[in-house]
Description:
With 600 residues, this protein is mainly α.
Amino acid sequence: MAKSIPERSEILAEHKWNLASLFEDDAEWEKNFALLGELVPEAEKKKAGFVADADVLLEALKSYEQYLILEERLGYYAHLRVAEDEGNSVARGMFARFVGLSSQGQASWSWLSPAIQALDDDFVDHCLSCPKFADYSVFLKKLRRFKPHVLSEAEERLLALQTESAQTAQEAFSVLTNVDLDFGTVETPEGPKPLTQSTFASFMRMQDRNVRKAAYHQFYAQFEAHQNTLGALYAGSVKLDKYQALVRKYPSARAMALFPDNVPEAVYDNLISTVNENLPILHRYYSLRKEILGLDSLRHYDVYVPLVAEVKASHSYEEAVDIVIESLAPLGDEYVHTLRRGLLGGWVDRYENKGKRSGAFSAGSFVGDPYILLNYKDEVLHDLFTIAHEGGHSMHSWYSARNNPFMCYNYTIFEAEVASTFNEQLVFSYLYDHSHDDREKAFLVATRIDDTLATLFRQTMFAEFEKRAHEIVESGEALTVDVLRKEYRSLLEKYFGPEMVLERVSDLEGLRIPHFYTAFYVYKYATGLSASIALSERVLHGGKEERDAYLNFLKSGGSRFPIESLKLAGVDMSTPQPVQAACRRFAEDVERLAVLLHRD
Length: 600
């Protein structure tokens, strides 16, 4: 029988995070919250006196920075207090009040970016040449890039007023799929179990094929019953992307989405073309999966069931930290000593308690420690990898905050996924090299194959679908539900290959992916993993030069655009080579699994 989940008050203090690096307690937070309220009116004062004068601009930037630093501290503290116990009404009240004041503050400062973009280029260039603007130079340069896409004040106001209504398609999709659709229950050997958006993945991992099949068809029956509504919602989202790109004078919605990170569209296209060239590798894996499962035909509901049962192993939190630290030794003393000190000394909220947010995350800020939320379980090997993953995010934040001014310390999601998955690569290598059990090795390899497939191949398929859907709308054609299903089915056929027997409803999967409502985002997962694989290989098989190059990438924070910072680390994502290397590593893993399971 599973032990009961403890109350928050029952968790030992040393097993909780220590938020004192942000604020000593709630009372200190309240004092600083009041101070933030006093800073908000400063925005209007700065606006009233704003002219094209270097000292005036500098003082405005300093005031804005002061506001943002305190706002970030307050926001992180309140967010973490809610995450540790979502039933804590005091914490929820703090966070709600913070959101209200933050919205007010951001509205008060909303004039600054348009005002800076309206300044004469020669004047801004003069300011950037002055040493006193050093802490703001990256911020100003990145902001000025948007100048060709900024409209008049009246037009910008109209677009801003549309912000809330522009969320309608995404919000309606979420409510429909997570609330209104009733998927019922599925009969299992243990009795009926509820089928939901959240439990669907669990059903697809069950060993009983009849249960998987029943859950699959029952699940997609609901999507088929609402396919016209779902198709209209997604088409509306794509049309909105097209509209916003046209209004802001971008050549396409994709160009608009990639512009903030200064990622060339060739990077997106290289990803798709390189993965497409390597699809025979993926087809080989599905052939192996069919063989291992002993199936006459491979179905869509057969692709997620584990090929190797999870190895029974138990590591206390402290033992898991030891393994992670030993795995990351190639990164040098400063990295591992700092991370060990954080993992054992107040950065981490380790275990589940009633009301605590599920899953895991890292929350790094400019002021304060880079905190980590876990729900660690001794017997779940994946949780050991989660420590390494979130530790990668936290060390990225730690290095970034200590090597950059506040206005350019925050790195992009594109870069963040590299730092976290990089650590997972090193942990895998350590565990694999220290294992003497073929079954354990097979489990590790099979797990890495599934992770690579989900991140590299599947996300690239999603990225290709987004590209096609937007091209259809931007060419003036109608994006009907029939068109969406046809396009998605053609991709399923291409990516799964000849071994897959698709169901009539399989292409409805394309109508249930929430990421599609934030266009041209998912490619970052695939490119991030490709970069981390390449960099981990460099560090594992290199020396001080390769290690220092990677650490310099972590230290660069937001001071460079992602492609530039990754070049600093030693990988050029503007070429197909990193993606090709990731595909090659996937192929090696597939053949390694075949040997370990005697299927070669």
